[in-house]
Amino acid sequence: MDERGPLTGEPLALDLVNTRPAGPDGRRTDLIATPELLAAWLSLEADRLPAEARGSATAADLAALHAVRADTGAVVDALLEGAAPPRAALAGLNAAQRAAPPVRELHRDGTGVRAVTCRTGPAGAVLAAVFAEAAVDLVTGPGAAGIKRCEAEGCVMLFLPAHPRRRWCSPARCGNRARVARYYRRHRAAQAGSEPS
């Protein structure tokens, strides 16, 4: 995995929040800062998105998704700190869902009828609603209490561990870096202890 690339594979809402990683200098980078970057990131998430949330990305789509990302991040941060989520963030996620609510449409299926849930509206509103709903599912679901922040120094990534001993956002991204740093600390300490006085 490219350390500068997006971290994917976590719940959809966490993948969105994780599009703002911190660099080595501690400053955050926006991995979906432009419509082109957003389109590339959405292609990585395509198999988890409904058809109406895929497609071209515009500046309006970007603004709507950035707002959902900020609101999701604020709610998750509050949960991690054991604090009440900000009302404005909750209101923002609710508003994003209302802008393109899910509708059960009827479709003919051979000789029968089936219902398909979809969203209608402007592409940016649909995209924001899909991610806002993913955030609601995450923070109200059983996994909410298990969300963790990566323990690697300087990393701000969030994850939902499948294993209780998981400490890093990714073994390739931070796990290896932490293990190498630990090895060098031990190696330097052993060398310092073996030097003649």
Detailed description of the structure:
With 197 residues, the protein is mostly helical. It has one domain (12-194): Jann2411-like domain (Jann2411-like fold, Orthogonal Bundle), CATH 1.10.3300. Helix content is 48%, strand content 10%. The protein contains six helices and four strands. It has helices spanning 12-17, 35-45, 59-81, 87-99, 123-140, 171-194; strands spanning 102-109, 112-119, 148-149, 158-159. The strands form two sheets. Strands 1-2 form a two-stranded antiparallel sheet. α3 (59-81) packs antiparallel against α4 and α4 packs across α5 (123-140). The longest helix is centred in the last third of the chain and has 24 residues, at 171-194. It is elongated. The protein starts with 11 loop residues before the first helix and ends with a helix.
Topology:
Layout: H1 12-17, H2 35-45, H3 59-81, H4 87-99, E1 102-109, E2 112-119, H5 123-140, E3 148-149, E4 158-159, H6 171-194
Antiparallel strand pairs: 1-2, 3-4
Helix pairs in contact: 3-4, 3-5, 4-5
Structure described in brief:
This protein is mainly alpha-helical.
List the defining traits of the structure above.
10% strand, mainly alpha, 6 helices, two-stranded antiparallel sheet, elongated, Jann2411-like fold, 197 residues
